[in-house]
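ASSEMBLY PREDICTION REQUEST
Request ID: AP-0331
Submitted by: J.K., bench scientist
Number of chains: two
Total residues: 714
Priority: normal
Notes: Please return the full assembly, not individual chains.
Input sequences:
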Amino acid sequence: MNPKNFNRLFFVPIQGASLSHSAAAEIFNKDESRTDWHDETLWFVREKRDKAVRQIAEWEQLRSLGSTIKDHTLSNLDNYLAEFEKNAQANGIKVHWAIDAEEHNEIILKIIRDQKVEQVVKSKSMLTEECHLNDYLAKRGVEVVDTDLGERIVQFRNEPPSHIVLPAIHLKKQDVSETFHEHLGTEKGNNDPQYLTEAARQHLRTKFIHSQLAITGVNFAIASTGGFVVCTNEGNADMGAHAAKIHIACMGIEKIIPNAEHLGVFLRLLARSATGQPITTYSSHFHQPRVGQQMHIIIVDNGRTKQLGRPDFRSSLKCIRCAACFNTCPVYRRSGGHSYHTAVAGPIGSILNPNLDMKANADLPFASTLCGSCSNVCPVKIDIHVQLYKWRQELVSEGYTATGKKVAMKGMAFVLSHPSIYRVAGKMGRWMMRVFPFIINNKSLNPWYKQREMPEAPKQSFRDWYKKNKQ
Amino acid sequence: MKVGLFIPCYIDQFYPKVAVATLELLEKLGCEVVFPLNQTCCGQPMANSGFASLSEGCDKNFVANFGEVDHIVSPSGSCVLHVKEHLHDQDEIKAAYIRKHIYELTEFIVDVLKVENITASFPHKVGMHISCHGQRGLNLSSMSELSAPSFSKPAYLLNMVKGLQLSEPKRVDECCGFGGTFCVFEEAVSVKMGKDRITEHAVNEVEYITGGDVSCLMHLEGILKRQGSKVKTIHIAEILNSD
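STATUS: Completed
Returned structure:
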């Protein structure tokens, strides 16, 4: 069988995306030294996280507290959202509701057109990535400038972010230098990080000054005050929101927390888990528009209520987007964010995205060894690896599985359910491996053998030995 | 104490020496060991691939084989965890008993037999590979992600072995990339993960890499052999049973 046929039999083609996770990861791994660099860069962040969390004696209790507050909030989401809306409106904020990505994008476009806005800046918001806002607006003649440094770099390159906290982590400084040379006219071959960031800084300053509308994400929305908090390390959300006359903040329905005092839990959890910092450089609290400014909040569902209705997967909505599960994941570190072909990659993305589109994301729950490290670093204790296992069951029962795999699994289950057939099959298999090793030791038929030797096949099984020696 | 020996299918077929070592070790430690002859597999390969619905036959066979012993012991953390978390049967009383009384080998020796001395000798440099399911699932050792006191049941036993010099890799508990069918469906990442574990052990100049799961060791062994490395893999039962 040629490898193409093997792939057709054993992998479900991914709709829309060109490559499945495993195929994209195979390409990623072709440049081994670059894979090593990617792995080590992210492992460095994981180690920083470890150091930071060990400085707090009550870290594990803090995780439990964060988890409990989120569980409580998700169980009372309807009330907290209504409370938030009421208080935000009382503060003078205009609140919009969007059922899905399209409605979210339409609301923003309408504000832009109604106010005749031409210059738009946006700080990091994974929700707007999920909704493909930039593409939507670009197609309608509106240019959005991403102001987070990493986001700006990938935007210049016409790439999606590869990581939710570190959007350009797949790029080396040489890559950034080339991109800036092309788009900002920096010196060719000058890879000095300070020189490059200064160029980005000057470039973004003009964008901030001329912007008429600033879009930001929301890290936490507080039901009892109607205010919200945006966390950044670059201050770019503040620069945008303070310079522009219109501020639009976009949030998923799960961003609600009941009270401001709960920030004392989440702000401590978020930055330590994300980058090993005690707190983000900027944790900006927005409560009402300043005089002459308009402030809008768009509250988006886009599949979240559906996920909330799935008992096995609802706790995935506790996620505070710290990306600790990305940094610890040995598969993510060695396959890169783009292999996940979704806005949110990594382990958490692999349990969120099948909810949005099972067929297009049927490969993702299998892009894991179920090692469980993700669940251990999760600051709000989402049992990510358990949900990966459960998504696999769900996908198979819904029919999103390749024919060859189904046949193989059925065959295997049959053999292993019948002890006498198992004994004969085992004996035959070992005999085949000894007598006709070239059938097994075939790189295109047997993916194991491509880079690994097969185990030696002994003449007798343990069962044979036991019968001879112990009975 | 009557112990039912559960030998996972691939150990039965490809690594009978690990099963023999486990049996002999348990007998040395005073257990009456039986090996129910009609056992096959715990059903994990199907379940982890999303076909838990097909593991009913394996479950039924497992309960039929292990329903009559006091404890079930196995030289595989991964298979034990699968049984503990997922074994169900029409005879739910027996299934529940099995789920509660199945142990990974080192866990059984430390927690149930409470062994304080092992009379084994293995004068070699050995690197410890921590298998994820035993560690994060069965709590055989502390986990690098958690803020908690450190401990290790397998290392506690290995440190009793005469002449053995134990080392751990820089990333103490990173997954080796075996992952069941992951090792073929995500071949590139799987092998890269394995190679990286091996590189870290090589820095410590180990002669052997040991662990509690043959599946991880089989994967690492496959890469070591392809690389032409002199480093060997050995299951912890073989070391604890060595004279």
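REVIEWER COMMENTS: Residues 125-240 of chain B form a domain with the Rossmann fold fold (CATH 3.40.50).
SIGN-OFF: pending second reviewer
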